[in-house]
Request: fold
Amino acid sequence: MSTKGIISVTVLFYIAVGLYVFAVPKHRITFKDACTCDGCHGIDRWDAKTDTEAPPWGIYIKSITPLDVAAWKPPSDEISTAKDSPRLAEEEAWYSLTGRIDLIRVEQDGDLHIQLQDEHNIVVVEVPLGDIPAWCEIRKKVFSWTKQTFALSFGTSKTLELNGKEPKLLTVTGKRFWDTDHAPKDQSKRRPGEPDVLVWEIHPVMDIK
Reply:
C-alpha cells in the first residue's frame, strides 16, 4: 500500500473512532428486572420525588382527570430549582388521577414514566425505584403491559412497546408535583415543545387501579 493509502486508512480509522465515542452513550443504565437497576442516577429534587408517605385513604384524596389537572394554576410560591428543594405545600395534596395510557418509558433515574391522557391533555405520572414494596409491585404490573424483557439496557431513556394487555383506563394515586425540569420560564402550565403535556405530575405514584 502506498504512503498516501496508509494515510487515508489512518484518517478514516480515527474518524470512525471519533464517531463511535460520540455516538455511544458514556453511561449505560441496566435493569436486571422491574425493580433492580445498575447505573440509575437521580439528582433533581430527589427526596421530594421519592417521598414514601402512604396515601391518607378517604375524603383526603380527590378523584380527577387530565382535564382537571389542566385547570390547575402554577405554584403560588416561586419554587426553587435547587437539587434538594423540598416539596411545596401545594405538592402535599393527594389525588387519584384517571386517564388512558398514552406512553410508558423508563428513565435514567430509574423512574417508570407513564403518560395518562384525555382528548387534549397529558399528565405524566411516575413510579420511582425504591425500598418500599408498593413501588416494586406497581412496576412489575406496568412492565407486564409491555413487550419488554430483561435485562434491559439503554443510555438516557427508553420507550416501551405496549403488548395490548394494558387497561383502557388507569387510575393512579399520589401527590401532585411541579416538574421544575420541564417547566417553561414563563411558568405556564405546559411543557415547551410538548403542548399537550402538562407540567403538573403525579409523583410518586403510590397505588394503581
Q: What stands out?
A: Residues 10 and 196 are 49 Å apart (CA to CA).
